[in-house]
Amino acid sequence: MPSFQAEAGETAPPDAVHPRDSSPQAPTSVSRLNETIRDFVQRWGAVWVEGEITSWNLRGGHVFGRLKDAETDAALSFRLWSSTLQRVTDDLKVGDRVVACVKPDYFIKTGDLTFTVSSMRHTGLGDQLERLERLRAQLRSEGLFDASRKRPVPFLPGVIGLITGERSDAEKDVHRNAELRWPQVRFRTVHVAVQGERCVPEVLAALQTLDADPEVDVIVIARGGGDPQTLMGFSDERLVRAVAAASTPVVSAIGHENDHPLLDDVADLRASTPTDAAKKIVPDVAEQRALVQQLRSRAYTRLAQRVAHDIAQLEQLRSRPALRDPESMLTGRAHELFTLVSRGRDQMRRRLETAERRTAELRAGLRALSPGATLARGYAIAHTGDGTIVRDAAQAPAGTAVTVTVARGSFAARSDGEIPEDG
After folding, report:
1. 3-class DSSP assignment, residue 219
2. Per-domain boundaries in the chain
């Protein structure tokens, strides 16, 4: 391992600060002390170091990040100039395990120690990222990330449950932006630790408290970003499963756009920032008023168009001859009715005359064929006591009582027997 100790025989610069040169009565300046530290650091050589990238921020073509020890929580800050970045062939990102050649650099103005990278390459996926990806795949296979199980956020929540750090920028951003959009919005805030060992237990307790509150319509878990190492609590399996089991919709507002803890995948709604969370769960009262005004204007326009159309139709109907002079229609109909009545009377009269003639003909025929008419002509009908009509003289031998019916009545007679034809 290389040593950062000054080589034997090296002497400090003549203007360097020594403990014996300062006292409460004659203290040294911060600038001189920082210059002494810088001069000492500049004599250190470059060293190869292995670790896991926990922060990777690209600004102005340069990279500013942090490198974490693979076994402990020790970490250091590094910078990668654009000229060096162009020589790096690997696609580096947060979570990658790398080896890098670094040289320390101390800034006099800020008193910060950082390391300038002259070379960096992959050595494998970081242990934390690897465990995180395995857990992500397991939870996805269980269906915890499915869109079908996510609950919709209410249009206008009555009470918003907020889980965030005490006096944090995230809390201020959520409150300020939500109240700007809807001044009457109400919050029920629970302050928790948003990093470290206390993070997961406190967030779980706050989630349970707010989920059990019947007045809370939506729960927001907010944090103002940070490097992946500080956000690991929001990828804890206990917290992720508790959010999936909550009955109240949960909004994840952890970190910035590039941060992606597991809480983002299981939450019912993901917001890139706390400000974005306030905009997504609280409607803008000005926009809603404008929308209502727009809808009222559209309804008024449609109603005016409908009324104008109906008026035009009424005018068109009024201009028709039948409505302009209704008596003409009645006159024509009356003449038509008179014609039909006259025609009906003529037809009925002709039919009655025809029926009368036919009835007379039938009556005459019936009279001609009637037995009464035959009797009126002098004929008679003789029948025996049992009602048998005598059609043959042999039916009434001598002494037979018969009844003779003539045109006007009947009389009794007795047969004297058959009379010979020549008699």
Report:
1. strand
2. 19-125, 131-146+157-283, 286-318, 374-414
- Please provide the size of the chain in residues: 423
Tokens of 65: 């990040």
Nearest to 250 by CA among 229, 225, 277, 282: 277
Q: Which CATH number fits domain 131-146+157-283: 3.40.250.10, 3.40.50.1970, 3.40.50.2300, 3.40.190.10?
A: 3.40.50.2300
Confidence band of 139 (pLDDT split at 50, 70, 90): very high
* Structure confidence at residue 396 (pLDDT): 82
Tokens of 248: 């109240």
**What whole-number distance in Å separates Cα of residue 186 and Cα of residue 109?**
45
d(Cα 254, Cα 413) in Å, to the nearest integer?
A: 140
Instruction: Give the span between the Cα atoms of 67 and 88, in whole angstroms.
Output: 17
- Judge contact between 93 and 54, C-beta under 8 A: no
Sort strands 401-406 and 409-414 into parallel, antiparallel or unpaired. antiparallel
Is-contact 225 277, C-beta < 8 A? no
Distance CA(274)–CA(254), nearest Å, equals: 7
Q: Tell me, what's the pLDDT at 8?
A: 39
Pairing type for strands 47-59 and 62-68 reads antiparallel
Q: What are 99-130's pLDDT values in tens digits?
A: 889 999 888 888 888 899 988 887 755 566 77
Please, are residues 126 and 95 in contact by the beta-carbon 8 Å criterion?
A: yes
Round to whole Å and give the CA distance between 264 and 272. Answer: 9
Tens-digit pLDDT profile for residues 321-339 = 777 777 777 787 888 898 9
- Report whether CATH 2.40.50.140 matches the domain 19-125: yes
Band of pLDDT at residue 13, cut at 50, 70 and 90:
low
Kindly calculate the radius of gyration of the chain based on its CA atoms and give it in whole angstroms.
59
Burial class (CB in 10 A: 0-12, 13-18, 19+), 266: buried
